[in-house]
Write a structure and sequence with these properties.
Blueprint (H helix, E strand, L loop, with lengths): L1 H49 L4 H6 L1 E4 L1 H11 L4 H10 L4 E9 L5 E7 L5 E8 L4 E9 L10 H15 L3
Antiparallel strand pairs: 1-2, 2-3, 3-4, 4-5
C-alpha cells in the first residue's frame, strides 16, 4: 500500500511539475516575442533616423513586408511568383534585426529595403519593379548605432536547465 501511495504521489508531482514547466516555457516565449518586436522597432528607428526620417511618420505612410511574409505568400498560393522570388533574393542574407521591404504611399512598383548590417551600418536599397523581377536603382549606407540585444532571464534559465539535463540525464 505504501509503495502504491508513493507512486501515485510521485506521478502526481511529476504531472504538476511538467504543467508548471510548460507554463513557464510559454511565458518565456511570450517575453521573447515582446523583446524581439521591441528590438526590431529600435533597430528600424535607428535606421530611419540615420537617413533623416522619423520612424513614426514612415509607419503612418507606408506598409512593409519581411522575408517571412514573402514565404507565407508562397505557401498560401502554392506557387512561386518570379517577382516575389526576386524580392526574396534581395532580402535574404544576414542582418541585425529583420530586413523590411517598405512600400510608400501604396506604390506597388517602388520598394525600399531597410536593414542594419552586423557592422551596425544602416542600409537602404531602392528597388524598381520590372516585368519579372526587381532591380536595384540605388543603395545607400550610413553609420548606425549599436543596438544592444538583451536576453530574457528565462532564456538563460532554460539554457542552463538543458545543459544540466544533457550532462546528467535521468
Amino acid at each position: 500500500m505504501f509503495v502504491l501511495n508513493f507512486l501515485l504521489i510521485t506521478i502526481g508531482s511529476s504531472s504538476v511539475f511538467a504543467q508548471e514547466e510548460n507554463k513557464l516555457e510559454i511565458d518565456c516565449e511570450r517575453k521573447k516575442d515582446i523583446r524581439n518586436k521591441e528590438y526590431n522597432e529600435q533597430v528600424m528607428e535607428d535606421i530611419f533616423s540615420s537617413f533623416g526620417h522619423k520612424y513614426e511618420e514612415i509607419i503612418d505612410q507606408s506598409m512593409y513586408l519581411t522575408m517571412i511574409d514573402l514565404m507565407k505568400y508562397t505557401v498560401l498560393t502554392g506557387k512561386q511568383v518570379k517577382q516575389l522570388e526576386s524580392l526574396k533574393d534581395h532580402v535574404s542574407g544576414e542582418a541585425i534585426g529583420e530586413k523590411r521591404i517598405y512600400f510608400f504611399h501604396g506604390d506597388p512598383n517602388t520598394a525600399y529595403i531597410f536593414y542594419k548590417e552586423k557592422s551596425s551600418n544602416n542600409i537602404v536599397i531602392h528597388l524598381k519593379r520590372e516585368e519579372n523581377k526587381w532591380i536595384i536603382l540605388d543603395k545607400q549606407v550610413k553609420k548606425g548605432k549599436k543596438i544592444k540585444y538583451i536576453q530574457e532571464k528565462c532564456e538563460d534559465d532554460y539554457f542552463m536547465k538543458r545543459m544540466f539535463h544533457n550532462l546528467y540525464p535521468e
